[in-house]
Each structure stands twice: as C-alpha cells, then as structure tokens.
TrEMBL record:
It comes from Salipiger mangrovisoli. InterPro entries: Isochorismatase-like_dom (IPR000868), Isochorismatase-like_hydrls (IPR050272), Isochorismatase-like_sf (IPR036380). The lineage of its organism: Bacteria, Pseudomonadati, Pseudomonadota, Alphaproteobacteria, Rhodobacterales. GO terms for molecular function: hydrolase activity. Signal peptide: none annotated. This is Cysteine hydrolase. Keywords: Hydrolase. Residues 20-214 form the Isochorismatase-like domain. Pfam families: Isochorismatase. It comes from the Bacteria.
C-alpha cells in the first residue's frame, strides 16, 4: 500500500501507487512525424509535439517509482487481415492504411512509421501493446495485464486526446478503473478538440475520469516515495 494524492480536476484523487499504471497512447512516428498516417489524413502533425516533453516527464517519474508502464501502438498486421474495411476505406486520405509511404507502409506493424518516437522509446521490460483499434482494451490483452498486476488506476497520456486517449479512458472507466488524463501530455490535431476533450472527461463531477498534468503526477508519486 502506497497511497498518494494527485492534484486533479474535478477533485484530487487518492490512489495506491502500487496499483496504478502509466499508459502512453500511440506516441508513434505515424501520428507525430510528416509522411505518416496523421499527415495522410490532412493534419498538421507538428501540433502533437507539445505532448512529447510532458509524456517524457511522466515516463521518467513512473520509471523512477517502479510503476507499471505500458506503451500502446495503433497499427495492423502486414496482410491487413485485422483492419476493418470500414477503417481502410474511410475518408479521402492521400495514402490509405497499408499504402507505401516515406516511413514504410501506413499504420502497419513492423514499419518505421509504426515505431514510437525516439524521445519516448520503451525501455526493456516495459509493456508494448499493439492495438488494431482506437481503444487500448479492444482486441488486446490489456485487461489481462492489468489484472495480473493488480492495477485499479490508469494514468493516461499520448495522442490524440479526443480519439485514442478518450476511447481508452472511456473503455477503462466502464471496466471499473479510475482513469486520469494528463492533459499537457496529451495532444490533438485540433486544439479545440483537445481542450473540450479534457473538459468532457472531468465535467459532471468527473463523469468518466479525472484530468491532471505531468508535473502534478510526478510530484504526487515522488511525494509518495518520500513518505514510504
Ligand atoms: N491514436 C489515435 O488517436 N489515432 C487516430 O487516428 N487519431 C486521430 O486523431 N486521427
């Protein structure tokens, strides 16, 4: 038992540091760098850079405290057998999922674009979870991993706020986890969606979670260490 108090909205959250996991969502080259999936959809990928530093600070704090760290990657098998046609055919991207691009095939596992950005590269021993959908629970063994580790609180950061971060927090909330978004460690191609996405989580008394930030998270778990 290692209780810590995290400054958060709409209210501070007390959780057991030993039962919390940091989940870093999809900080992949495909979303953050030119030539990947994000850019094919017409987005300005530079907007996601804002989350890199705060994600790094959250990772550093979690690693120092021994907290379970999970990195997720959105992507598909090379034969695209796990990619729904509705996803492949959607919209009018400049390149579709599976098409060749400057970082390899778009959103395909094993390609350079599928890698996590160098600044946030997973360390040996950290969980790297490949997911075919937006939510980290959908068609993955995340629930098994969290259960095996006795986790009841998810600290979530990454991209994008209103898509994969939101979906994962909504999935986690419905499964009974306390879910916290680290707001400055999340980002969107649409600044307004980022802002409102965070508002949606914490409205109505925290209807499906809490919102905090990377520095508060680092302070909370470091203070917990001193008290331990
Ligand atoms: N990781 C994630 O959020 N996947 C997306 O496709 N996000 C977009 O905002 N497009």
């Amino acid at each position: 038992m290692n209780k810590v108090q995290l400054a958060a909205d709409p209210a501070p959250l007390i959780f057991d540091r030993d039962r919390a996991a940091l989940i870093v969502i999809d900080m992949q080259r495909d979303f953050l760098e030119p030539g990947g999936f994000g850019e094919t959809l017409g987005n300005d990928v530079s907007l996601l850079q804002a989350a890199v530093g705060p994600c790094g600070r959250a990772l550093e704090a979690a690693r120092a405290s021994g907290m379970l760290v999970i990195h997720t990657r959105e992507g598909h098998r090379p034969d695209l057998s796990d990619a729904p046609p509705a996803k492949i055919q959607r919209g009018v991207p400049s390149r579709r999922i599976g098409d060749p691009g400057p970082m390899g095939r778009i959103l395909v596992r094993g390609e350079p674009g599928h890698d996590i950005v160098a600044e946030l590269a997973p360390l040996a021993g950290e969980v790297v979870l490949d997911k075919p959908g937006k939510g980290a629970f959908h068609q993955t063994d995340l629930a098994q991993i969290l259960g095996n580790n006795g986790i009841d609180t998810l600290i979530v950061c990454g991209v994008t706020t209103e898509v994969c971060v939101h979906t994962t927090i909504r999935e986690g909330n419905d499964r009974g986890y306390r879910c916290v978004a680290l707001g400055d460690a999340c980002a969107s191609y649409f600044p307004e969606f980022h802002r409102v996405g965070l508002e949606m989580i914490k409205a109505q008394g925290g209807i499906f979670g809490w919102v905090s930030d990377a520095a508060s998270f680092a302070n909370a778990i470091t203070a917990g260490e001193q008290a331990a």
